[in-house]
Amino acid sequence: MTTVSELYVIRRQEVGGLAGERIGDYTRAAEWASQLEGGYMNRRIGIVAVALTVAGILTVRGAFSQVTMQPTRKVIKLAGGPVQAPFSDAILSGNTLYLAGRIGLDPKTGKPPEKIEDEIKILLDGEKDVLAQAGMTMDDLVYVQISCTDLTLFDKFNPIYKSYFTTTDFPAREFVGAGSLLRGGHFELQAIAVKR
Q1: How far apart are the first and last CA of the chain?
Q2: Which of 34, 49, 107, 129 is such that its CA lies 20 to 30 A from the CA of 192?
Q3: pLDDT given at position 42
Q4: CB 64 within 8 A of CB 98
Q5: How many Cα neighbours within 13 Å face the side chain of 189?
Q6: Torsions phi, psi for 72 (to 5 deg)
Q7: What pTM does this model have?
Q8: Are 113 and 185 in contact (CB under 8 A)?
Q9: 119 burial class (0-12, 13-18, 19+ CB within 10 angstroms)?
């Protein structure tokens, strides 16, 4: 009995060695199949299989061994504040600074000053001090939230607030009403800054 590979070899000899010519339903695939007979694998297929296996192992191994960099985290706490409470003035994570809520209290008395304008300046000076500890300025603010016990103070707050910036690209901001604030303050400000 003649095998498929023998038929293919005979036919190749008849046509002068042209490969890929059909003998019935048999093609060059029949020759490859015959090389697999007896448990022997085509050398080229074996090399490709080994290369793909090694590449797969290295890829999987590399994907699981990659180190994810965590941003550095720095706590900012100003010394001598009027209120000693269990929180930081800000947290610097990477290049983003998260500023805690701040009230414009007089550092000597721990109460808001008599004049609203002075309270606003103390509040914003405190924010500037925290920003400076992180190597930033008011121009680095990207978001500001101001809570106010009396929304009629909006027009007194804005010109002073505006004077603390050197740019006209002000941060996103909200000015919201609040029932009351700690220690009798009229304003509380919290913010987020991103270093340029």
Answers
A1: 83
A2: 107
A3: 62
A4: no
A5: 23
A6: -65, 155
A7: 0.64
A8: no
A9: buried
Mean pLDDT value across the chain: 81
* Residue 145, SS3 per DSSP: strand
CA distance 76 to 131: 9
Q: Domain 73-194 adopts which CATH fold?
A: 60s Ribosomal Protein L30; Chain: A; (3.30.1330)
Spell out the residues 6+ positions from residue 179 whose beta carbon is closer than 8 angstroms to its own.
149
Phi, psi of 107 (to 5 degrees): -65, -25
Give the DSSP letter string of 84-116.
--SS-SEEEETTEEEEEEEE---TTTSS--SSH
Q: Cα separation of 151 and 142, whole Å?
A: 23
Instruction: Give the residue range(s) of CATH 3.30.1330.40 domains in the chain.
Output: 73-194
- Nearest CA to 181 out of 123, 130, 141 is that of 123
Q: Any idea which of 15-19, 41-45, 159-163 has the lowest mean pLDDT?
A: 15-19
* Nearest Cα residue to 182 out of 120, 111, 106, 84: 111
Contact 138, 191 (CB under 8 A): no
Pairwise pLDDT comparison (37 vs 67), residue with the higher score: 67
Render the burial of 122-155: b for 16+ CB within 10 Å, e for the rest: bbbebbeebbebbebbbebbeebbbbbeeeebee
Does position 164 have pLDDT exceeding 70, yes or no? Answer: yes
